Amino acid sequence: MTGIDGRRAPPGHDGSSPKGSAMTPSETLDRGRAAFAEHRWGEAFDALADADETGALHAADLERMSTAAILLGRDAVGMDLATRAHEAFLGIEDAAGAARCATWIGIYLMGKGDDARAGGWLARAKRIAAEDPAAEPAEALLHVAAALDQLYSGAVPTAAATFATAFSLGRRFHDRDAMALAQLGEGQAKIMLDDLPGGLALLDEAMVAVTAGEISAVASGIVYCSVIGTCHLAFDVRRAQQWTIALDHWCGERPDMVMFSGQCQAHRAALYCFHGAWTDAMDAARVAQERAGVGDWSGRFGAWYEEGEVHRLRGEFDAAEVAFHRAGETGYPPQPGLALLRLAQGRVRLARSLIREAIEHVDPATRRQWLAAVVEIELAAGDRAAARAAADELDASTPADAMPMMRAVTARSDASVRLEEGDARGALARLRAAWTTWEELDAPYEAARCRVLAAQASRSLGDEASAAMDLAAARDVFAELGAVPDVLRVDGLARGSSASRGLPLTRREIEVVRLVAEGLTNRAIAGRLYLSEKTVDRHLSNVFAKLGISSRAAATAYAYEHALI
């Protein structure tokens, strides 16, 4: 028998028993309801579809069938069935059921970015609730939808208050789905407003309802995936890891579920990447893409973004370009990965433009997460003042009791600017603290990056032995990870150290020669090094005299011959 979505039902699910004895419509319906209650979505859908052909489905059964279809990744079928359920509730004058269906359709379409249709359905739900007092229980979910719209529009304080009202209404009408979603939303809003402890506490409480099995499958999936994403935003990698393991287990218990399974794999990819398991991260990203292709549209961005990150870190820039482009097709900016890719490609000006544009249009929590990339890019562009401003902003938003990862990111960003400012000793102290934290978090790539900066600080202090040790240790990590651009950079730093020993030039003169070799004019060099143009002229004259040369071309050749760049 063919179901309403055009697929042929599997053996034993065609309205007859495995032995061939006919089942009555009532028995088929009972089987569908039982399968739904036991989270066997495929069997539930097929049995309910068989019952639907006999005209046996009531409004609540159509709602169940719609949920099963959505969880199976049959998006269009699920929306059609939700519409039928809404109309069936209206037909039996169940205003609460009709308003609830309309609100869920609106929330689902809002999540997909279909704002016009979402607005229409939510307006209908509001009208029903306003016209019929019996629909008052739907007010809790309606407030969740209104708060989501406020959150997406950037009215974060207003959204937090509306979510709180939604929770109160949900508790009044015993709507556990609305209560959990309201706690989730208020927690996200608090984190966006820099109240990390308050926000994380609300997320944990929402997760209690999920793990206790108190809320529906769709609401559970929303809470799981949103909590994990928000934990990453709050730099709480340990919480993200714990809930990702729980989500993986939850999805594993529902093997035929498509919805949320792609997001689960994308979250796994992010954690694998963080912990240096880049091959596993790529595998998880590919599975996430496959799940997105068969129905879990919500996992598409993360699937492609995480693949782009692995390619970028490995130096596979063309592949990273493709992956970030695919991530951007979802409507979300693939940042800061794309800007960092441009930096790795040597397109510093474009990287700077991209990150500056992107960071001006995000919420405070996302801005805080991207500031480390801003520091890195501004330093590469030679704008020490902009880098310092970004590092100070990050430091100001990092409380004393911040998550370890956040403290490590802040310390590294500040240290990298201190290094450029000439405060090598201050930079080294912060780098050692950051390196220890990254090691404790089992983040080998980030730890190795700290050691490279520490090597540069040690070299500035004249401690070549420590510099060589840190560079060698970092190179081993990069080589094991397959971080080709970082291996090449470390090799260049090591050669530069060997070549610069015994050179007749001072540290500042070497900096000038390097910038001459990059093609900069004396005026540009003065701006980059925060010197007067007259001072740069003097340094360059000293270089010519010491090396016995008389042209910028000869200085450039010398820089290449002695591995100064």
Radius of gyration: 29 Å
Shape: elongated
The CATH class label of the domain at 401-501 is Mainly Alpha
Going by CATH, the homologous superfamily of the domain at 401-501 would be Tetratricopeptide repeat domain
How many strands, what sense, and barrel or not for the largest sheet? Answer: none
* Percentage of residues in strands: under 5%
Distance between the termini: 71 Å
Which ranges are low-confidence, i.e. pLDDT below 50, for 5 or more consecutive residues?
Answer: 1-20
Content-based structural category: mainly alpha
Q: What is the ordering of alpha helices and beta strands?
A: HHHHHHHHHHHHHHHHHHHHHHHHHHHHH
Word description of this protein:
- There is one protein chain.
- It is built from 29 helices and no strands.
- The chain has helices spanning 25-37, 41-53, 59-71, 75-91, 95-111, 115-131, 139-152, 156-172, 176-192, 196-211, 217-233, 237-252, 261-274, 278-293, 300-314, 317-328, 337-344, 348-359, 364-380, 384-396, 404-421, 424-440, 444-460, 464-481, 484-500, 507-517, 522-529, 533-547, 552-561.
- α20 packs antiparallel against α21 (404-421), α26 (507-517) crosses α28 and α27 (522-529) packs across α28.
- The protein has 565 residues and is mostly helical.
- Among the domains are: 401-501, Alpha Horseshoe (Serine Threonine Protein Phosphatase 5, Tetratricopeptide repeat), CATH 1.25.40; 504-565, Orthogonal Bundle (Arc Repressor Mutant, subunit A), CATH 1.10.10.
- It is 75% helix and 0% strand.
- It is elongated, with a radius of gyration of 29 Å.
